C-alpha cells in the first residue's frame, strides 16, 4: 500500500460507501469537519480532493433507468481509496426486487462477477468491488457501528413515535442481519491488508474520526513524494504554490473555446502585442490563464518557455520586486534546463534590488532563451493585487514597458480597476474581456464540477440552477455548487437548492455560506459565534490576522479551530502568515451580516485593540531586544484600532510608545503617523513634550536594567536612546514642527557630549550629523544666522576630512556636499545670491563626483531658486528640468514629495513669465503629488495654495485667491506651526492683501495689527528678514486706513518700526510726519524728541523726486486743498526738468478722476495751464486737455468757451466725428445759428458713418440732434 500511486496525479478520489438510511450523521461529520482538512492537505501538494459519496450522487432518473450499481462500481474504478461504514441496516437488497435485479442485469456486461451476488445489497457490492474481491489492491478502511448505539436511537424514536427514525436504526430482517454478520467476518479476516477494520465503533462522531485518521495516514503515504519535490528549492516550492492555485482554478469555470483560441493565436504572431485579460470579479480570468498555460506546456513546450505568476496566491507573491524576481528566476531556470544544468538545492537570499535592475535581468533571461531558439511567454494574473509599498508609487510602474521583441506578455486585471485599465491602454495593450456564461456553458460547467466530486443532479434541479440569472457569473455558480457538494442530506437537496438560488448576488450567496458555517459549528461545544468572531476580526484588522492571533484572541480549542479553518480556507488568502478574505464579495457579506450595527463593529475593534495592547505591554524595554514581527504587528494594528474606536487617550499613549514610533518610521509610515496624531487633537508642541518625557522614562528604565545586569559602566543610558531621539526628530521634521526638532536635537547633542570624551568629540560623526541637522532646523525655523554659524562650523570638520575631492569616498563627498548646500540655501534666503551660487556650485561638484543624483537634483533646484530671484527665469527653468529628470531617475516609478516642490517652482517660473495657464498646470501637479504623499493637511501644501492664489489674483478672482490663502493659514494653525515661520508669515500677509483688494479694509486692519506685532518682535530678536521681505503696499494701505479712521497712535507705532527696515518706502517718512503733526499739533510738538526720520512731502520729493507714491500723495493733497494756483505752481516748478510733462499731466488727470473732493473750477484751470505748456507734438495729451476743458465749461453752461475749445479740437483731429457733433450742439444752443449747426452736424454724421460700428451710439445721437435742428429750422420759418 505504501507504493500506491494516485490514478490521476492531480486528483485524489475517496469513495465513501454506506447504506442510505441511518448513516447521515457520519456523512455529515465527514463532510463538514474532515473534508475541508483533507482538501487543504491535498491542495498543498497541488492535488484536488474529490469525495465520492453515491448516496446523493445518483439521480432519480439514473435509478429509474436501473443504472445505480453500474454507476457506483464505475466510480469505484476511478477511486484511490475505499471507506466503508455500516450501522444496523444492510441496505437495498433482495432477489425478488425487480428494479434491483434490472440494475444487476445492466451492470453484468461490465462486471460479470455480479451474477454470483444477486442476493447482496448494493452497499456490499461496493465493499466487494472496493476491497473484498481483491484485498489490498485498493487502500481501504472499514467501520461497523456498535449495535447498542442503534438500539438507543431506535428506543428514542419509539418514545417519540417517529417511524422514520425507527426505520433508520432497525435491521431490515433477520436475513439481513445474518448477511451483515457474514460481511463483518469476511472484512475482519482481511484487516491486515487495510488501513483498519473497526467492528464496533460507539457513535457517528467516533466513526467519522476513525475514517479520517485512516485517510490521513493514506495521504501521508501517497503524497510525500510530491512534497519532497516541491520543497527541494525555494523556486520549486513557490512554483508549486502557484501551480496549486492554478490547479484549483483549472476546472472551475467555463471560459469558452473562443477565448482559448484567441490566446493560442498569439503563439502564431511574429510581433504579438501585449494582452490584457479583464472582466468582472469571478468571471474566470485565472481559469482562462490556467487552461492556456496547461495547453502551452503540453502542446508547445518545444517552442515556448512560459513563466507565470499569480499575484497574492503564494508566499512572497504580492510585492512588485517579488513578482519580477520570480518570473526572472523561472526563465533563468528554463534556460539552465535547456543547457542541461541542474538546479542548486540551496539558494542564498538575495538583497532587495532596484526594480529597474530586476527588469534588466528579466530581459536578459528572455534574450538568452531566445538565442537558443525559443520564444518566451510572461503571464501575470491579477496585476491589481500587487502591493503598494508607498503612496508615491505610479500605477504599474514595475510592469516592464518593453521586453525583447517577440515576447508574449499577458496580464489579467479586474474590470473594476479603471486606473489599471487606463494605464495598460496607454501602453497599447490589446484587451480581451471575458463575458458572462451562457446557459449552455453553465450547464456544462455545473455537470462537470459535480461529476468530478461524484455527484449528479436531476434535470429539474440542474434547470433551477442554470436558469438563475446570477449564475451567469462563474464564481457565483462555483460557490453555489460547493455548497451543494458539502451538503450531506440528499432528501433535503431540493430545499437547499431553492434556498441558494434565491440569492441574487455573490455576496448574498456568501451570506448563505456564513450561515452554513455557523450551523456546522453549533455542535462543536464552543461558546460564542465562531464564524462571526473570526470573520469580523479579519474584516476589521488593517493587515489581516494570523491563525495564532485569532486562536489566542478567542481562546479557540484546536479541535474547534482546525475543522472550521479548513472549511472556510478555500475562501481566504494567506499572505505572509496573515489571513485575509480571498473574495471581496465575502468581505461585503461579512460586513452586511455582522457589522452593520456600530456597536458590534466597536465590540470587535475593541477586542483587536485589547489583544494588541496586551502584546505591546509585553514588548521588552530595550530596542535591541524587540522581535521585529511582534513589534510590527502591534505597530501596524493597535494605533489604527484605537483611531477607529476614537479612543484618543489610548491612541496617543500607543503612538508615544517609542518602540511603536520606531517601527512605523522603519516601515515608512510617516504619513500614517502624521494622520494618526492629527486625529488625537494634540498640538505638535504637546506631542514633542510627550515624546521627550517618554525618552526620560526610557533612560530611567535602561539605567535600572543596567544595574540589574551589572552593565552600568559599559554604556551610558542616554546612548541607548539616541536612536529614539532620531526617530522623534524624523517625525517632527516630516510635519515641519521645527521648534520641536530644535528641542530634540539639543537633547541628542547633550547626550552625545556625555557619551564621548573631548578627544573623540571632534571625530564623532554622530555628533557632526546632529549638528548638521540642527543647522538645517534653524534654517527651516527662520533662524538664519544661527543656521549659518553652525553650518560653517560643521563645514570645517568636513573639509578637513576631505582635503582632495578626487580621492574622497562617496560618503565624505555626500556629507561635504550637504554642508555646501545648507550654507548656499542660507545665503539664498538672506539675499546674497553670489555667495549662494558659489556654495551651491561647490555642492553640485561634490554630488557629481560622488554620483549622488539625489543631492545633485537638490542643488539644481536651489540654483533655480537663485536664478528665479534674479529674474533669470529661463535659466531657472533649465535647472528645474534637470532636477526633475534626476529625481525621476532616482525615484523610478514613484512621485516623491520632492517632485511636488520642483513642480511648484517650475510653476513659479512660468507665472513670472506671465504664462498663467502653464503655471497653474504645474501648481496642480505639485498639489497632486503633495496630497498623494502627505495628505490634505500638511504644511507643504501651503506653498502651492499660495501660488494658486496669485494665479487667481492675476485672473481677477480675488475671492478665490483669498480662499486659497485662508486654506494655507488654516493648515499652518492646525499643525501648530511657529508664528515666525517664514512661509506662514507670507500666507498671513497674503490674506491681508486679498482683503485690501476686496475693499474689506476693516477686516484687513484687524488681522494686520497682531501680524505687525509679530514682525516687530522677530526684528528685535534678530530675525529682521521677516519684516524686510513684506510687501510695502500692504503697510501703506493699512497705514492710510488707520490715519483715515483716527488711529494715528497705532499708525505712528507701525511707522516708527517700519522706517528702520528694508520694507520702508519714501512715503512712510511723510506719513510719519503727518501723524506726528496730528498727534502733536503746533506748540504741543516735543522739540526735544529724538529725530525719528519723519519728513515733509516736499523734503521727501527732493530726496526721491521720481517716487510715484510721493508724487501721488503731494498731488492728492493739493487737489483736496482746492487751491488751483498751488497745484499749478507745483506743476510748473517740476516740469519739464524733473518729470516728463505729458506723463505728469496724465498722472494728475488720473488723480482728479479718483479724488474725493472734485472741483470743476480747479480742473479747468489745471487743464488750461497744461495746454499752455504742452508741446504741439503731444497731440493726444492736448486733445485730452481740450476735451476736459470744453466739457467742464459745458457743465458750467459757458457754451461760448466750450465752442471755441471744441473747434480747436477739430483742428488737430479732423476725422473724429465727436468734436463736430459737440460744435453743432453748442452752436444750436448758444448762437441759434441753425445753418452753421447743421453744417457741423452733417460733417459729424459723415465721419461717424465712415467709422462703422465703433461709432454706432454716437451716430444715434447725431441723428437725434439732426432731428432737433430740423424742427428748430421749421419753427423759425413759421415764425
Brief description of this entry?
By secondary structure, the protein is mainly alpha-helical.
Produce the secondary structure layout.
Blueprint: E1 11-17, H1 24-44, E2 48-53, H2 60-64, H3 68-78, E3 81-86, H4 98-108, H5 122-132, E4 140-145, H6 147-160, H7 163-168, H8 174-189, E5 197-201, H9 204-222, H10 224-230, H11 234-250, H12 257-265, E6 275-279, H13 285-299, E7 304-310, H14 320-338, H15 355-371, E8 375-381, E9 408-414, H16 418-426, E10 430-433, H17 439-452, H18 459-466, H19 474-485, H20 493-501, H21 506-520, H22 530-540, H23 547-554, H24 558-568, E11 572-575, E12 578-581, H25 584-594, H26 598-617, H27 628-645, H28 648-656, H29 658-666, H30 670-680, H31 684-709, H32 722-734, H33 738-755, H34 758-761, H35 765-780, H36 784-801, H37 810-830, H38 833-849, H39 853-869, H40 873-890, H41 897-912, H42 916-934, H43 940-954, H44 958-974, H45 982-997, H46 1001-1020, H47 1025-1028, H48 1032-1044, H49 1048-1058, H50 1066-1079, H51 1097-1103, H52 1108-1121, H53 1124-1134, H54 1141-1154, H55 1160-1173, H56 1179-1195, H57 1199-1212, H58 1217-1230, H59 1234-1251, H60 1256-1278
Parallel strand pairs: 1-2, 1-3, 3-4, 4-5, 6-9, 6-10, 7-8, 8-9
Antiparallel strand pairs: 11-12
Helix pairs in contact: 1-9, 1-24, 3-5, 11-13, 12-13, 14-15, 17-19, 19-21, 21-25, 22-25, 22-26, 26-27, 27-28, 27-29, 28-30, 29-32, 31-32, 31-33, 32-33, 33-35, 35-36, 35-37, 36-37, 37-38, 37-39, 38-39, 39-40, 39-41, 40-41, 41-42, 41-43, 42-43, 43-44, 43-45, 44-45, 45-46, 48-49, 48-50, 49-50, 51-52, ...
Amino acid at each position: 500500500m505504501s507504493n500506491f500511486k494516485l490514478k490521476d496525479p492531480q486528483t485524489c478520489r475517496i469513495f465513501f460507501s454506506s447504506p442510505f438510511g441511518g448513516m447521515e450523521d457520519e456523512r455529515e461529520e465527514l463532510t463538514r469537519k474532515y473534508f475541508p482538512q483533507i482538501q487543504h492537505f491535498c491542495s498543498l501538494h497541488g492535488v484536488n480532493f474529490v469525495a465520492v459519496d453515491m448516496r446523493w450522487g445518483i439521480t432519480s432518473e439514473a435509478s429509474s433507468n436501473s443504472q445505480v450499481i453500474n454507476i457506483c462500481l464505475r466510480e469505484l474504478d476511478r477511486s484511490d481509496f475505499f471507506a466503508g461504514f455500516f450501522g444496523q441496516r444492510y441496505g437495498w437488497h433482495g432477489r425478488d426486487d425487480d428494479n434491483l435485479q434490472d440494475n444487476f442485469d445492466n451492470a453484468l456486461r461490465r462486471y460479470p462477477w455480479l451474477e454470483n451476488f444477486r442476493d447482496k445489497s448494493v452497499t456490499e457490492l461496493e465493499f466487494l468491488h472496493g476491497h473484498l474481491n481483491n484485498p489490498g489492491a485498493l487502500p481501504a478502511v472499514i467501520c461497523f457501528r456498535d449495535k447498542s448505539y442503534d438500539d438507543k436511537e431506535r428506543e428514542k424514536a419509539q418514545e417519540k413515535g417517529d417511524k422514520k427514525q425507527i426505520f433508520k436504526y432497525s435491521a431490515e430482517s433477520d436475513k439481513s442481519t445474518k448477511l451483515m454478520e457474514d460481511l463483518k467476518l469476511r472484512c475482519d479476516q482481511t484487516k491486515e491488508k487495510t488501513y483498519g477494520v473497526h467492528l464496533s465503533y460507539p457513535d457517528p462522531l467516533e466513526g467519522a474520526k476513525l475514517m479520517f485518521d485512516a485517510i490521513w495516514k493514506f495521504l501521508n503515504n501517497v503524497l510525500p513524494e510530491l512534497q519532497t519535490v516541491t520543497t527541494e528549492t525555494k523556486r520549486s516550492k513557490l512554483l508549486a504554490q502557484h501551480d496549486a492555485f492554478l490547479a484549483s482554478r483549472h476546472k472551475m469555470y467555463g471560459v469558452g473555446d473562443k477565448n482559448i483560441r484567441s490566446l493560442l493565436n498569439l503563439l502564431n504572431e511574429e510581433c504579438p502585442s501585449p494582452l490584457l485579460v479583464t472582466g468582472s470579479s469571478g468571471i474566470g480570468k485565472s481559469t482562462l490563464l490556467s487552461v492556456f498555460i496547461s495547453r502551452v506546456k503540453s502542446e508547445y513546450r518545444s517552442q515556448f518557455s512560459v513563466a507565470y505568476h499569480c499575484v497574492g496566491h503564494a508566499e512572497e507573491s504580492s510585492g512588485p520586486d517579488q513578482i519580477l524576481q520570480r518570473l526572472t528566476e523561472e526563465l533563468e531556470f528554463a534556460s539552465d534546463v535547456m543547457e542541461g544544468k541542474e538546479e542548486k538545492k540551496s539558494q542564498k537570499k538575495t538583497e532587495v534590488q532596484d526594480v529597474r535592475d530586476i527588469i534588466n535581468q528579466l530581459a536578459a533571461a528572455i534574450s538568452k532563451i531566445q538565442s537558443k531558439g525559443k520564444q518566451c511567454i510572461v503571464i501575470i494574473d491579477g496585476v491589481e493585487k500587487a502591493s503598494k509599498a508607498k503612496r508615491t508609487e505610479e500605477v504599474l510602474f514595475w510592469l516592464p514597458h518593453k521586453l525583447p521583441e517577440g515576447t508574449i506578455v499577458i496580464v489579467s486585471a479586474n474590470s473594476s480597476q479603471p486606473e489599471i485599465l487606463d494605464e495598460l491602454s496607454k501602453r497599447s495593450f490589446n484587451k480581451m474581456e471575458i463575458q458572462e456564461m451562457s446557459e449552455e456553458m453553465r450547464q456544462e460547467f455545473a455537470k462537470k464540477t459535480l461529476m468530478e466530486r461524484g455527484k449528479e443532479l436531476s434535470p429539474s434541479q440542474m434547470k433551477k440552477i442554470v436558469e438563475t440569472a446570477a449564475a451567469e457569473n462563474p464564481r457565483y455558480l462555483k460557490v453555489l455548487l460547493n455548497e451543494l457538494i458539502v451538503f450531506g442530506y440528499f432528501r433535503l437537496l431540493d430545499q437547499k437548492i431553492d434556498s441558494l438560488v434565491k440569492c441574487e448576488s455573490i455576496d448574498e450567496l456568501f451570506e448563505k455560506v456564513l450561515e452554513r458555517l455557523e450551523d456546522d459549528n453549533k455542535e462543536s461545544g464552543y461558546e460564542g459565534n465562531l464564524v462571526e468572531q473570526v470573520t469580523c476580526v479579519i474584516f476589521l484588522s488593517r493587515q489581516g490576522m494570523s491563525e495564532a492571533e485569532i486562536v489566542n484572541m478567542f481562546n479557540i480549542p484546536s479541535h474547534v479551530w482546525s475543522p472550521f479553518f479548513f472549511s472556510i480556507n478555500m475562501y481566504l488568502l494567506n499572505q505572509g502568515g496573515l489571513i485575509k478574505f480571498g473574495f471581496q464579495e465575502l468581505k461585503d457579506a461579512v460586513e452586511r451580516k455582522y457589522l452593520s450595527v456600530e456597536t458590534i463593529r466597536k465590540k470587535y475593534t475593541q477586542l483587536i485593540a485589547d489583544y494588541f495592547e496586551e502584546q505591546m505591554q509585553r514588548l521588552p524595554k530595550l530596542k535591541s531586544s524587540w522581535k521585529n514581527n511582534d513589534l510590527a504587528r502591534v505597530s501596524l494594528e493597535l494605533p489604527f484600532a484605537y483611531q477607529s474606536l476614537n479612543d484618543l487617550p489610548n491612541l496617543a499613549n500607543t503612538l508615544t510608545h517609542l518602540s511603536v514610533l520606531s517601527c512605523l518610521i522603519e516601515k515608512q509610515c510617516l504619513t500614517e503617523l502624521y494622520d494618526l496624531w492629527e486625529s488625537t487633537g494634540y498640538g505638535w508642541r504637546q506631542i514633542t513634550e510627550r515624546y521627550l518625557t517618554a525618552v526620560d522614562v526610557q533612560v530611567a528604565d535602561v539605567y535600572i536594567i543596567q544595574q540589574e545586569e551589572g552593565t552600568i559602566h559599559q554604556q551610558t543610558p542616554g546612548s541607548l536612546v539616541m536612536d529614539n531621539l532620531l526617530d522623534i526628530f524624523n517625525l517632527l521634521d516630516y510635519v515641519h514642527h521645527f521648534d520641536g526638532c530644535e528641542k530634540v536635537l539639543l537633547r541628542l547633542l547633550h547626550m552625545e557630549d556625555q557619551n564621548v570624551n573631548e578627544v573623540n568629540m571632534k571625530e564623532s560623526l554622530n555628533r557632526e550629523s546632529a549638528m548638521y541637522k540642527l543647522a538645517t532646523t534653524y534654517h527651516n525655523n527662520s533662524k538664519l544666522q544661527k543656521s549659518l554659524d553652525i553650518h560653517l562650523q560643521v563645514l570645517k570638520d568636513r573639509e578637513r576630512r576631505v582635503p582632495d575631492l578626487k580621492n574622497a569616498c562617496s560618503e565624505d563627498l555626500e556629507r561635504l556636499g550637504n554642508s555646501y548646500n545648507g550654507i548656499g540655501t542660507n545665503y539664498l534666503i538672506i539675499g546674497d545670491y553670489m555667495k549662494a551660487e558659489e556654495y551651491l556650485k561647490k555642492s553640485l561638484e561634490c554630488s557629481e563626483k560622488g554620483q549622488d543624483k539625489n543631492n545633485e537634483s537638490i542643488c539644481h533646484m536651489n540654483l533655480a531658486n537663485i536664478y528665479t530671484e534674479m529674474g533669470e527665469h529661463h535659466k531657472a527653468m533649465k535647472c528645474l528640468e534637470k532636477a526633475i529628470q534626476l529625481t525621476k531617475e532616482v525615484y523610478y516609478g514613484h512621485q516623491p514629495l520632492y517632485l511636488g516642490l520642483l513642480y511648484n517652482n517650475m510653476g513659479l517660473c512660468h507665472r513670472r513669465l506671465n504664462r498663467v495657464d502653464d503655471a497653474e498646470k504645474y501648481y496642480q501637479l505639485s498639489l497632486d503629488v503633495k496630497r498623494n504623499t502627505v495628505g490634505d493637511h500638511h504644511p507643504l501644501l501651503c506653498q502651492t495654495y499660495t501660488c494658486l492664489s496669485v494665479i487667481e489674483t492675476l485672473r481677477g478672482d480675488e475671492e478665490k485667491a483669498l480662499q486659497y490663502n485662508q486654506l494655507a493659514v488654516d493648515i499652518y494653525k492646525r499643525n501648530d506651526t511657529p508664528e515666525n515661520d517664514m512661509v506662514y508669515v507670507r500666507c498671513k500677509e497674503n490674506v491681508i492683501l486679498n482683503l485690501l483688494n476686496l475693499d474689506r479694509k476693516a477686516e484687513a486692519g484687524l488681522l494686520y495689527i497682531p501680524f505687525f506685532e509679530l514682525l516687530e518682535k522677530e526684528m528685535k530678536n534678530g530675525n529682521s528678514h521677516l519684516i524686510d521681505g513684506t510687501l510695502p503696499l500692504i503697510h501703506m494701505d493699512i497705514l492710510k486706513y488707520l490715519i483715515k479712521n483716527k488711529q494715528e497712535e497705532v499708525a505712528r507705532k507701525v511707522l516708527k518700526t517700519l522706517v528702520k527696515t528694508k520694507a520702508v518706502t519714501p512715503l512712510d517718512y511723510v506719513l510719519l510726519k503727518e501723524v506726528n503733526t496730528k498727534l502733536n499739533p503746533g506748540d504741543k510738538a516735543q522739540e526735544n524728541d529724538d529725530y525719528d526720520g519723519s519728513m515733509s512731502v516736499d523734503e521727501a520729493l527732493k530726496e526721491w523726486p521720481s517716487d510715484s507714491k510721493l508724487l501721488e500723495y503731494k498731488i492728492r493733497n493739493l487737489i483736496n486743498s482746492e487751491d488751483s494756483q498751488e497745484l499749478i505752481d507745483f506743476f510748473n516748478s517740476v516740469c519739464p526738468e524733473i518729470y516728463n510733462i505729458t506723463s505728469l499731466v496724465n498722472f494728475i488727470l488720473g488723480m482728479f478722476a479718483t479724488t474725493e473732493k472734485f472741483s470743476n473750477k480747479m480742473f479747468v484751470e489745471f487743464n488750461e495751464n497744461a495746454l499752455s505748456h504742452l508741446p504741439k507734438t503731444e497731440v493726444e495729451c492736448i486733445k485730452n486737455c481740450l476735451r476736459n476743458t470744453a466739457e467742464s465749461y459745458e457743465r458750467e453752461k459757458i457754451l461760448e468757451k466750450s465752442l471755441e475749445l471744441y473747434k480747436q479740437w477739430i483742428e488737430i483731429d479732423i476725422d473724429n466725428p465727436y468734436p463736430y457733433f459737440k460744435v453743432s450742439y453748442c452752436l444750436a444752443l448758444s448762437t441759434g445759428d441753425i445753418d452753421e449747426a447743421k453744417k457741423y452736424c452733417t460733417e459729424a454724421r459723415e465721419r461717424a458713418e465712415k467709422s462703422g460700428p465703433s461709432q454706432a451710439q454716437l451716430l444715434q445721437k447725431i441723428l437725434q440732434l439732426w432731428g432737433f435742428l430740423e424742427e428748430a429750422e421749421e419753427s423759425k420759418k413759421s415764425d
